[in-house]
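Email to the structure team, subject: Polysaccharide chain length determinant N-terminal domain-containing protein model.

Hi all, the expression group asked for a predicted structure before they design truncation constructs. Nothing fancy, just the tokens so they can compare against earlier work. One-line instruction: predict Polysaccharide chain length determinant N-terminal domain-containing protein, return tokens.
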Amino acid sequence: MNRTVEQPSRGVSLLLRQTYEHHTLGLLTALRRRWLLIGAIIAAAAAVSAGVSLLLSDKYTAEALVQVELGRPGPQPSAQAGTATLEGSVIVESEARVLRSAFIAQRVAQDLGLERDAAFAPRPSMLSRLWSYWVSRREVTETGTSAERIARELSRNLKVTNDARAYLISVAYTSGDPDRSARIANAFVDAYMRNRLEIGVASAERTSAWLQEQVTATRASLDEAEAAIERFRQRTGTVEGSAGAPNLAQQELRDATTRLGTAVQNRLAAEARLARARDAFAAGSVPSAQDLAGAPVIQRLLEAVETANRDLQTVSATGPRHPGYLTAKASLEGVQERLRREIEQAIGNLEGDRRTALQEEALLAAQVETLKKSVIEAMGHETQLQGLQASAAAIRERLKLLNDSFAQAVALAGMRSSTTQAIMPAQPDTVPSGPNRAFIVGLSVLAASGAGLCAAIMLERHSTGFRSPGDLVEDTGTRCLGMLPKIHRRSTAGERRMFDEAIGLVGASLGWSRTSPTPQILLVASAVPGEGKSLLCGALANALTERGLRVLVIDGNADADPPDDRADLGSVVSGDVSMFLSACPAAGQTVLRGRVGGSRYDLYATPAFARFIDLAREAFDLVLIEAPPVLLFQEAVTLAHHADATLLAARWKRTPREVVLTALQRLQDQTVRVRGIVLTEVDLKDHRRDRIIDQCTLYGRYRQLFETRAAVSPLQRETCPRLDAKAS
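Reply from the structure team: attached below.
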């Protein structure tokens, strides 16, 4: 059964060579295949461009030069005034853009009266007058007035250029008349210079008027600023002092601050004396004489206490009940009581001194705060006054600058000069400047070459079929059993002989060079219809019939109602198969037509059909089955399981590779192995342009050999009509 696959045996050097040519010389090969198309496109483009260039009229160009002067004599604005400076090339480019403007073109048309020139304002033809109303309205709306149309025409033929390394502007105009070109170019220069002069004068006048308004407004602002300063002085009484010298309020604040510091020190000293006196008194001792300064009574009492103590010590030996001892003790206690009262009184005096120091400190602190507010207010008034004076000074300086600028603007408005001049007027040139016919033809040829290359590459990209056995093996991994040249009713005997040789090569690849053909049951399938499968089956059957073999052809791709009288496969399978086989001729072909699609009944999957195949294997030397398209009908897979080998037919360079790969994948998914692929319908003329060495290349190279040796046998003459019918 059909369960094996054969690998192609190719020379390594040939495979490497074809791979190299496929990847490296693909573009050159495409150009070689499509050189006729590329040549036709180039020739057509050259002919059309040559004809168009001959129909074009000669053009004449006149050129005038304008020099831009960037400097003007007289006083220039200083850098301190903040004037921005521009590069000379930028200024020259700006002037060139003015020359190219539509306004200058309209002035030229008006100055030369081009509306009355037939070259610019042709009379409408009869066809234009008979044109539809809405088209006429649309044309008027889009093109505008006659002056605008003429201005656009002038702008199209005008060329204004400037050199970044020089302050020159070139004004060139091109037309069919050299005198007209020179006249229009000079008119552009004159209109530009006149417009520049008018703009300069108008700008100076506008500037002077604006500056006059600014001077008047600034003078009024200065008067208002000076009046505001005087009102502020009268309201606040602020007088400007010398720079860096303190005013009266500041001096008073400084003196008050000094007195406040002294009062704080006095208060702290009083508090310290009071604290020491209290601590000493609380400890039972007598405060120091320094703390009690100004209390002489306490000093005398201290001396009396000392005296009383000595007296008490003197009489202490007499005993405590002695009258002298009691008197001395009473005298000591009286003196100590008087001392205590005096000390308390002195401490009270110290307390009064502290309160007096606190009051004095508070008064001085309040005075300092008041003086601070006065100083701050005075400083604010002085700052405001200085701000008003600075504003007035700025307004005064601006007024001075405006007066100077106004004087300059008035002077410029009175000057009637321009900063540009025409250093070379345009002259008529009798030598045509265009059109460059050689350039037009060359450019057309170059563009046509590119278009031809793109067309060739797109056609090669669009052609996704197999061109050679090497491409087929590389993409599918399946061997190519042969290539069948294309034949038709008008094919010569040599072409038919080449076709027969190709069929013989397919048979040899299948192993039919031996006495009994193997495989015995061969299925010929295709991915889609129109692949030359019927022609291949008929040719293979004829080749074996000529050898005297008995061949059964099962046409599984027949229509529901075939036009011929071939036996129906379904009737044979369901009837007496032995009787049918015995009635078949001992040699030659027997053709059965099968059915495909249109019914749920699958004849090829029945046991009866399997028995029929087994009997046919014994009765015939070869059973050739033509299967329906693999991608359209499932019967192809069922028939492949009954065959010993499967062939797949694919049209040369026509069947997309993805279609063939999909069909192979479907057969592989159903455990069907394809013995090989046959490329059909090979156009030898088209194939000759491919840089591939295969059997069809040699057929085309040695075509004359087949023509001279062609000989058609009687059996071939009988089968040729059937081949012609299948080829057509």
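The mean pLDDT is 77. DSSP finds 25 helices and twelve strands in the chain. Ping us if the truncation boundaries need rechecking.
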